[in-house]
Amino acid sequence: MTGIIPGVSSVLPPLQFGTSLHETLAVVSVAVVAGAVIWRLGERLKARFRTENAEIVRAGLLLVLASVVAAVLVSEWNATGDMLSVVGAIRLGVDAGVRVLITVVLFVAAHTVTRILKRLLLGGSHAKSRATSEHQRRVVFYVSQVVIYIVAVFGTFSLWGIQVSDLLLGAGVLGVILGLAFQNTLGSILAGFVLMLSRPFDVGHWVRIGDHEGFISEITIAHVRLRNLDGEHVVLPNEAVSNRTIVNRSLEGKLRHCVEVGVDYGVDPEHAESVAREAIADLDEIMTQPAPQVLPVRFDDSAVVLELRFWIENPTPQRKWRAAQAVIYSVKTAFNREGIKIPFPQRELTQRRTDANVRDAESRSRDSVDTSRS
Questions:
Q1: End residue of a domain, out of 137, 162, 187
Q2: What is the pLDDT of residues 41-58, one digit of tens each?
Q3: Among residues of the chain, what percentage have pLDDT more than 90?
Q4: pTM here?
Q5: Deepest in the core among 40, 112, 158, 287, taking most CB within 10 A?
Q6: Burial of 355 (0-12, 13-18, 19+ CB in 10 A)
Q7: Within a 10 A sphere around the Cβ of 133, how many other Cβ atoms?
Q8: How far apart, in whole angstroms, are the C-alpha atoms of residue 177 and residue 180?
Q9: In the chain, how many domains are there?
Q10: Is the pLDDT of residue 4 over 60?
Q11: In angstroms, rounded to a whole number, what is the distance separating the alpha carbons of residues 87 and 154?
Q12: Which residues contact 204 (CB under 8 A, 6 or more apart)?
């Protein structure tokens, strides 16, 4: 069967769809069987070797198979001059079934490429051991995914002869309408990309975001999930996260904590400092470098207040509480041993003598004398 498009024979070769439709059906059938075999083989390799590389190999083989089938079919239709010739031939009257088949192959290829990128960037322990952070890998994956599908969509438009300029004009108007309708959602998505690029925290970090404190359990382009210290999961939109103060207690890998203790005014403060410093210097719960410090900070109502400053490694709330507990126990034991008193709150009550008080006392004395005489 031969099909010649009038008026373009000088530009494109006549379209010839092979000697029979059976050849096209045979190619498609072989491709389907080969794809099923590749899929099954990938499942077996993944189950046997327990490795995620098998899925990458399977996706790559499917992509190669789709490309080979597309090349064979285009060659069968005698339109293999170049890509422009293929597009031109399709615009000039190729059968609708051919366009559908090419469209399906195009989106299958786009989906396969995105799966390979996702497995390479976000899946497996080999990806987590790279120098790049998970934030950066997610940004690269999402941007690459959008670009790949945009290319597939515009390629489909070209295959079907749709004018992209008119479509972009309509998309601009539609984008304004959708932007007004979903401004909060779009704002959270844009804030998500900003968070992923600025990297104020990562999954597993101990943070405080506004009034919420806990561990980051999930970061997406729309929201941040935080598990607080009570075991509750809090979902915060990225737009709300970017507008709040963020305190990251895990980023440095260490955290300083302070405990205050008061000593009696009758105790030498330098001696109390020395005893407290020796008591906490060798504790396993705190770091030796930076070294712990003991400093007098203020005069209180009943005591001179000393501040014990120390650092903990790989900070978590549990480590912080255990370190404070160990410091308090050790300092209290050392003060008891050295006879250093930690005073209770005290108040001194005194009577002020004034002229009025003296006159009242003299008057009461005279009244008592008169009463005794009578």
A1: 162
A2: 666 665 555 555 555 666
A3: 29
A4: 0.55
A5: 112
A6: exposed
A7: 14
A8: 5
A9: 3
A10: no
A11: 12
A12: 215, 216, 250
Q: Tens digit of pLDDT for each residue in 14-32?
A: 444 444 455 656 666 666 6
CB 268 within 8 A of CB 244: no
Binning the chain into helix, strand and coil, the percentages to the nearest 5 are 55, 15, 30
Gap between the Cα atoms of 79 and 229, Å rounded: 65
- Residues 6, 153, single domain; the answer is yes
In one letter, which amino acid is 15?
L
CA distances for 220 relative to 160, 196, 203, 213, 216, angstroms? 35, 9, 11, 19, 11
How confident is the model at residue 177, as a pLDDT? 63
Question: Domain of 263?
Answer: 254-338
**Under DSSP, is residue 199 helix (H, G, I), strand (E, B) or coil?**
coil
Which long-range contacts link 21-28 to residues 24+ away (Cβ below 8 Å)? Answer: 23/76, 24/73, 24/76, 27/69, 27/72, 27/73, 27/76, 28/69, 28/101
Which CATH number characterizes residue 239's domain?
2.30.30.60
The number of helices, as runs of H, and strands, as runs of E, in the chain is 12, 10
Neighbours of 191 (CB within 10 A): 21
Token reading at 170: 């309509």
Tell me which amino acid residue 348 is.
E
Phi, psi of 6 (to 5 degrees): -65, 145
Sign of CA dihedral 67, 70, 74, 75: positive
Per-residue pLDDT of 298-311, as tens digits, reads: 998 889 999 999 99
* Cis upstream peptide for 290 (omega within 30°): yes
Q: Could you give the CA distance from residue 200 to residue 238 in angstroms, rounded to a whole number?
A: 12
